[in-house]
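Need a sequence for this fold. Nothing fancy.
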């Protein structure tokens, strides 16, 4: 099981500051979220979960993983959350991201799986009859043999 944990400043996040308020566990400080790449192997189970960095009572719900570009490593373009609280998404890697080619140094060429994580933030004690804002962030996965 491989976990991808999205850490969110739930106290300050809004649609205009997603990049500043979100990062992944283990991400190099200051690197853009779209460059965060997870290494995986065919057969790996990947679990996406979210946590608040500002309140242990706030919920970060991962609602969808949506294919954006590259090989469809999960065999479908969308993985849906489990509808729990906090909500998370689980997917099994079925295919690698290798191209059928090597570069001039005999290195295997990868076509990374680019995807969007859709998530919501539910602040403790906050009721929202209109629903919660959905945020999106777009990292990558590279799958080896």
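Here you go.
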């Amino acid at each position: 099981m491989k976990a991808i944990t999205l850490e969110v400043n739930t106290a300050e996040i809004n649609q205009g500051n997603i990049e500043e308020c979100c990062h992944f566990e283990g991400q190099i400080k200051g690197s853009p979220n779209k460059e965060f790449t997870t290494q995986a192997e065919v057969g790996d189970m990947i679990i996406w979960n979210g946590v608040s960095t500002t309140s242990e009572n706030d919920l970060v719900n991962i609602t969808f993983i949506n294919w954006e570009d590259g090989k469809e490593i999960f065999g479908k373009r969308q993985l849906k959350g489990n509808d729990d609280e906090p909500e998370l998404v689980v997917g099994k890697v079925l295919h690698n991201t290798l191209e059928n080619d090597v570069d001039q140094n005999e290195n295997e060429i990868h076509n990374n799986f680019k995807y969007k994580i859709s998530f919501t933030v539910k602040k403790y004690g906050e009721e929202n009859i209109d629903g919660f804002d959905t945020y999106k962030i777009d990292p990558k996965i590279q799958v080896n043999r």
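For context: Helices lie at 18-21.
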